[in-house]
Design a protein that fits this description.
Helix 6 packs antiparallel against helix 7. It is built from 9 helices and no strands. With 217 residues, the chain is an all-alpha fold.
């Protein structure tokens, strides 16, 4: 199958499943963080989305990636070589994504295991306030997740994770003052207001323009 035929085939499938899902081009574009012009070009066969966008498209349209690649008139056993190759690439991409999620999950489990271990050891030794370990585990867990995602150049959750780090540490400090010093330092949370505003403005400043107005390919 030549490139043009494949582009037209993918575009036709996107249009079919988009309409079946009751979405406009603009509605689908908003879900994918693309422009409606990009979706229009995909459907006209002028360009094709990349592999990760194909995965996102399939999720939004509640179909499989193979559904987007398949020729509606072809029998299953006559699936083209290009579609098979694309299917293999998508499978590897999804597997890599699943592996990263497992690593993130294991990292969180490790953080909370350490917090639990500290709590058990301190409480066994009758050292007071051992439960503080759980409060500090919240921002530490967020730091670990932020570090891993940044290393993978996946910045989608950075704003939320940085917010969790800030508010988590403020909460931990508040509880520390309350328990250790019997001092209600509720005003410490006021620091979070300009801090949160700074986070929102920072990410708005460096937010990329609407992704790839002309799509890919």
């Amino acid at each position: 199958m030549d490139d043009e035929k494949l582009k037209n085939q993918i575009g036709a499938n996107i249009a079919i499943y988009r309409k079946r899902a009751g979405l406009t081009q603009a509605g689908l574009a908003a879900k994918l963080n693309y422009s409606d012009k990009a979706v229009s070009k995909w459907e006209r066969g002028e360009s094709v989305p990349d592999v990760m966008t194909l995965v996102s498209l399939a999720e939004q349209l509640n179909v499989t990636v193979n559904d987007l690649l398949r020729d509606p008139e072809a029998l299953p056993e006559r699936t083209g070589v290009v579609q098979q190759a694309m299917g293999q690439v998508v499978e590897k991409t999804l597997k890599r994504k699943a592996n990263k999620n497992i690593i993130l999950g294991l990292s969180s489990v490790l953080v909370w295991f350490v917090a639990l271990l500290i709590f058990v050891v301190l409480s066994t030794l009758s050292i007071p306030y051992s439960e503080l370990a759980f409060f500090y585990a919240v921002p530490i867990n967020a730091i670990v997740l932020l570090s891993l995602r940044s290393a993978w150049r996946d910045f989608r959750w950075n704003r939320a994770l940085i917010s969790v780090i800030m508010w988590g540490f403020l909460l931990a400090l508040f509880v520390t003052f309350l328990i250790l010093l019997d001092f209600n330092a509720w005003k410490i949370f006021l620091l979070g207001i300009p801090g949160q505003a700074a986070i929102l403005l920072w990410f708005r400043l460096f937010r990329p323009a609407k992704r790839k107005e002309d799509g890919n390919g």
